[in-house]
Amino acid sequence: MVAAKEHFFMTPEEYLEREEKQPLKYEYMDGDVYAMSDNTLPHNTLALNIACALKNHLKGKGGKVLICGAKVQISERGPYHYPDVVISCDERDKKAFKFLQHPCLIIEVLSPST
């Protein structure tokens, strides 16, 4: 996804509270928020194909494979990202509800604009 920077500073707590009420997804880095733009169909197809291949590979091994809308918290103070594909095999992420905290693989599908 391509992100457009919003011009105001916020804490990680403010970001998490605000984002729950927003119709769009936002990434958070060092106090700045970035609105996520829509992906193209080829972008989504590639992300889905990668996720399906990885899910099949991990079948029966306990890994969690998520795509596009899954938020990842890199540390307690952020940043927060929405990667195209993310995998967590960590027990602490098995019951995660709002975001993963312990991914073992993050995949971003690049496009000419990125």
Q: Outline of this structure?
A:
With 114 residues, the chain is of the alpha+beta class. Helix content is 23%, strand content 25%. Residues 12-114 form the Putative restriction endonuclease domain.
Short key terms for the protein model shown above:
114 residues, alpha+beta, tt1808, chain A, three-stranded antiparallel beta sheet, 25% strand
Please provide a written account of the structure.
The protein is an alpha+beta fold and 114 residues long. The protein has a single domain (3-107), classed as tt1808, chain A. The chain has two helices and eight strands, in the order E-H-E-E-H-E-E-E-E-E. It has a three-stranded antiparallel β-sheet with strand order 1-3-2, covered by helices on one side. The chain has a three-stranded antiparallel β-sheet with strand order 4-7-8, with helices on one face. The chain is globular, with a radius of gyration of 14 Å. 23% of the residues are buried. The mean pLDDT is 89. Residues 12-114 form the Putative restriction endonuclease domain. This is Putative restriction endonuclease domain-containing protein. InterPro entries: Nuclease_put_TT1808 (IPR012296), Restrct_endonuc-II-like (IPR011335), Uma2 (IPR008538).
